Amino acid sequence: MAADPKQMHVARSLAHTAPFINCRFDPSGQYLLATAEDRAIIRWKLVDDSKVVFSGHDSWVRGLAFSKDGQKLVTSGFDDTLIWWPLLDEKPEPIRRVRAHKGWIRAVAVSSDGTLIASAGNDRVVKLWNMADGKLVQELAGHELDVYSLLFHPDGKHLLSGDLMGVIRQWDVATGKEVRKFEAKDLHSYNGGQRVHFGGVRSLALTADGKQLIAGGLHKATNPLGAVHEPIILRFNWADGKILKKHLAAGVRGVIWRNLIHPDGFVIGCSGGSGGGYLLFWKDAEEKEFHKQKLQDTAREMDLHPDGIQVAAVHWNKKVSMCRLEKKPAAPKK
Amino acid sequence: MKCDYACGSEEHLIARRQFLGGMTAGGAILGGLGTFATAEAVAKMAKNQKRMIVVRMAGGLSQFESWDPKPGTDTGGPFRAIKTSVPGVHISELLPHTAKVMHHLSMVRSINTNNGDHGKGTYMMLTGRHQAPGQTYPELGAVVARGLDSNALTLPGHIKVTSGGSGGRNNDAAYLGPKYASISLSGGKPPAYTTRPKDVTEAGEQKQNQFRKLANDRFAQRRRTAETDAYVQSFEQAQELMRQRDVFDLSKESDKDRERYGKTQFGEHCLLARRLVEKGITYVQVTHSNYDTHNENFNFHFEQLGEFDSPFATLVADLAASGLLEHTLIVVLSEFGRTPRINARYGRDHWGKSFSVCLGGAGIARGGVVGATNKNGTEVSEAECDAGHLFHTYLKALGMNSRGTFKIGGQKLPVADPAFEPIKELLA
User: Fold this and answer.
1) Taking a contact as any Cβ pair under 8 Å apart, which residues of chain B between 349 and 388 contact chain A?
2) pLDDT for A31-40, tens place per residue?
3) Interface of B with A in 63-102 (CB under 8 A)
4) ipTM of the complex in this document
5) Dihedral over alpha carbons B204, B206, B207, B208 (to 10 degrees)
């Protein structure tokens, strides 16, 4: 069944005891994993919404990634650490801890063949680890500011990393050499009055055919410290690195925390900020969104279920919006 | 204002001596207080002279991300606490360099000004008073410059180092008069307009000053007022600024030191602060901006404190190594702290009910922590204090009588708000 964003509705909500940070569906689609400001990792079994809470990091948990077989979860924290977990255990306990970086780890990503996991963050170094044993494989240096996002190319040969400066670097996974840069300058600003860098490449995604790259974040940051800015997604041509389209959401104040490309071809952006939370939808050739859905609270992250219909968005108000990109079923007749 | 010669105020006595000193210097340019002090006396006084450096964290530094971390609580945020050079004392992991010099410093973690307004908060923290309509009090820098004024000082005693703008006097000395108002510096350069214009020769300038002095002397014999004193003082200081403008020139510092302090603007400002107190400037206030992080508080504190930490720690370590820290009070303050509650945008808002300052050096006990907040930092749990207590403490630490008075125009005006007193536990 094709997804229909214009018919999107919130089917139900999940809840926790602290504001959320991130969420991901596991590869099987049976579970939703989320993290929260109480350092918790929360696993919901979607068939009955039963909940397991576990923890192991000494700070907030930002990154969530899964082994290809769906048996293991790897989390990254603002405590410099990667932790491997047995995802399906009744009460998961850490399998392995790796002190991976100096400072926050902001992103993790798993290669398409499942053998490598990449991590990056405030120390500006991208690191590749062996998924099976947690051994360091490669260090990729070159970013001039904090690394915010990571994405493996489906060809298995390349990794993309996006930073606060709005630079996306393409790396050769085998050699560790930088191949080229995509310039996402719209996503960065330096405010001389407030003396702060702001923005960054908050999320990366590739079209199914690998021919286009999208990078999300914010622009029009007239007051970074006061949250005055708007979401933006840049669409790059993979072949020559040029920007094909800027996807905007006029009137929405926020930042794209995550962008995804739906199997049907449209882009989904999750925006949160002073204007509240939105799911935004764009077609490839259009600047303006074809649909935007206001959420119950500011959104901090989202993920698309493998079925292409369910979308989970996590909020500051300690709730998860479990959305469906389809018409709301009619209420049963009494 | 007509000068009351009978008031006997110290200020007017000094001004009178200063004035006479200049007069007895014959045809020389009025040289300020230093003109009639011996070089030896000046050197001795300069060595023992107390000084003060204030680092003002503009916008409102988060106490959670600095001096009073609460990791693992609902308000603590993502950063961890780290050990410092003082056993048992922890600060935020964003300050690893400062943590190594904490044995030179102390902290107050129990400030409650009950204020969340930038303007009022800045006023309170810099005057030690609660703002009231129709009343204007001198800022800390003016009070310290005035209170520590001595014959050894010829340059302005109140300097503000900021991100932008340099030159003229600011309006921050209230009734203490323009002599103690601050001069702003920026960019590591001397104050603006302190070189002789190209079309004025040295001889021409001397003649101008001789004529001005002649006119001043004649006028002062019959019509001397507080205004004319201020006028003369302004000229004298301006001339000293021109003569000693290298004091303010950061390019005179070694490449090695410039490297140690870093090439950031704040690094340069810390090095300039060191240079200025070494040269005898009484009060230097460096502003670091901006901490008003309603949005993405953690990213911005990571960025800002990443810039603050190393230069500040270098400054403290240098002053300690040279012995100047014995005579120099350092304070890191902010108009208020930030909310325990983390808002929807990962921000923290204004909070004046439980925040901190860090201070050390002259007159302050080392390695101490005064006051405390509760488990998640939502309220003061021990030794609550106000900006007024801190103000008294600074003055007392500098050897001033904070319960004394300034005699201004025949009136006795309290040096600090009489409703408060120094925090004894902080004093060495």
Assistant:
1) none
2) 999 999 999 9
3) 71-72, 74, 77-80
4) 0.96
5) 90
